[in-house]
Inverse folding.
C-alpha cells in the first residue's frame, strides 16, 4: 500500500510574513459539471486565512519603503474583518500598534481575531454602513497622527495582486488551458491586479466579476462620489445590506475603478446571499473545502459559468477566506451545537457511554 508523503517546502521562513501567497489551486472533483474542469484558488492558506493578507503586507511594506509609515507609528484602517485581521497580523509581526474601525453588523469573531493579534477595534453603527467606518478611521488618523492604510484607494492593493496572485495563476496554468477566472471584488484589488496581467499575458482568459444581487453597485451604472483623496463621500444608492461579508461595501472602491475604466473584466454577474451560503456548505460537505459566504457566492457564480461553458473548458474560482470567521453568521445558524435526533439514535445503538 502506498501512503502519502511530504518533502517539506525546500526552504526555511524568516518570519510568518514570508509565508503570505503561493496559495494552491485545487481541483473540484465531485460537484463541478462533468463537461468542464473547475479549480478554486484557496486563499485561506495564507497565514491570516484570507486573501487580504496580501494587501495588508504590501500596504505596510510600501509605506515603509516610501517613508510614510514611521517606526512605531500606529496603523489605522476601516475593515469588514479580513483586511483588519491581515493588518493586525502584519503589525504584530513588525511591531506597529494597529487600530481597526468596523461597524457592528459584521461577525463578532472578526473583532475577537483582531484583538487576539493585539489590535484595538473601534466599533461604529451598522446604520452608518461602510462609509461610516471609513470616515471614523480618517478622523482617528488625522486626530492622532496615525498612518491610515487606505485599502480602498492605495495603489499598493492592486499592485500586490499583479505581482503575486496573478503570477501564481500564470505559473500554475503554464502551458495549460485556462478559459475563465471568477472573482468577487471587495476592495477591487484582486480583480484589478489579476485583470492587468491577464489582459497582457493571457488575453483569451475571460474574467467574470461577481457582486451581491441586492447590492449590484457596478450593474447600476451609478458612480461613487469621491473627495480629493479618492475616498467615498457618501453611500451608494444601489446598496442594500447583504450577508456576503467582505463583498461590496456601500460604495465602489477607487481601486476597483481601474478595472471598470480599463475594461479588465468581461462579464458582471450577481449572486444572492442564500446561494452563497448554500454553495459554501456544499464545498465543505462534498469537497472538504472550507470557505466563507463570500467564497460560496463566488463559487455559485463559477458553477453558473461552468454550466454554460463549452466542453473541455477550464475555470478558476477565487475563494477569499475561511469559513471560521462566519461562525456567528447565517452560514452556521442551522448547524446544531447539541446532538441531533439521528446522533442520539447512533449513541443509543450501543450500550456504553451514553450522553
Amino acid at each position: 500500500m502506498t501512503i502519502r508523503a511530504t518533502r517539506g517546502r525546500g526552504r526555511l521562513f524568516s518570519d510568518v510574513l514570508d509565508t503570505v501567497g503561493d496559495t494552491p489551486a485545487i481541483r473540484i472533483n465531485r460537484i463541478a459539471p462533468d463537461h468542464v474542469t473547475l479549480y478554486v484558488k484557496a486563499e485561506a492558506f495564507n497565514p491570516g486565512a484570507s486573501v487580504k493578507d496580501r494587501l495588508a503586507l504590501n500596504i505596510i511594506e510600501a509605506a515603509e519603503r516610501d517613508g510614510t509609515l514611521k517606526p512605531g507609528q500606529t496603523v489605522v484602517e476601516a475593515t469588514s474583518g479580513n483586511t483588519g485581521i491581515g493588518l493586525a497580523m502584519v503589525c504584530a509581526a513588525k511591531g506597529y500598534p494597529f487600530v481597526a474601525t468596523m461597524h457592528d453588523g459584521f461577525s463578532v469573531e472578526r473583532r475577537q481575531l483582531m484583538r487576539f493579534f493585539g489590535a484595538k477595534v473601534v466599533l461604529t453603527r451598522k446604520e452608518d454602513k461602510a462609509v461610516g467606518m471609513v470616515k471614523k478611521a480618517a478622523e482617528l488618523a488625522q486626530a492622532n497622527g496615525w498612518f491610515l492604510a487606505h485599502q480602498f484607494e492605495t495603489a499598493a492593493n492592486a499592485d500586490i495582486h499583479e505581482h503575486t496572485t496573478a503570477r501564481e495563476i500564470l505559473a500554475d496554468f503554464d502551458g495549460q488551458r485556462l478559459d475563465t477566472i471568477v472573482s468577487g471584488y471587495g476592495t477591487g484589488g484582486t480583480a484589478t491586479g489579476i485583470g492587468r496581467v491577464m489582459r497582457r499575458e493571457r488575453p483569451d482568459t475571460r474574467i467574470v466579476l461577481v457582486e451581491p444581487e441586492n447590492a449590484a453597485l457596478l450593474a447600476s451604472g451609478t458612480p461613487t462620489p469621491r473627495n480629493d483623496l479618492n475616498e467615498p463621500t457618501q453611500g451608494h444608492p444601489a446598496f442594500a445590506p447583504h450577508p456576503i461579508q467582505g463583498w461590496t461595501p456601500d460604495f465602489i472602491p477607487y481601486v476597483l475603478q481601474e478595472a471598470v475604466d480599463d475594461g479588465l473584466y468581461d462579464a458582471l454577474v450577481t449572486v444572492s446571499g442564500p446561494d452563497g451560503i448554500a454553495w459554501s456548505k456544499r464545498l465543505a460537505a462534498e469537497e472538504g473545502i472550507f470557505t466563507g459566504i463570500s467564497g460560496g457566492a463566488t463559487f455559485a457564480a463559477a458553477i453558473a459559468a461552468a454550466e454554460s461553458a463549452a466542453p473541455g473548458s477550464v475555470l478558476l474560482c477565487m475563494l477569499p477566506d475561511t469559513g471560521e470567521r462566519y461562525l456567528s453568521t447565517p452560514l452556521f445558524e442551522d448547524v446544531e451545537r447539541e446532538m441531533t435526533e439521528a446522533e442520539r439514535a447512533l449513541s443509543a445503538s450501543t450500550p456504553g457511554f451514553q450522553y
Observations:
- Residues 173 and 246 are 27 Å apart (CA to CA).
- The first helix runs from residue 52 to 66.
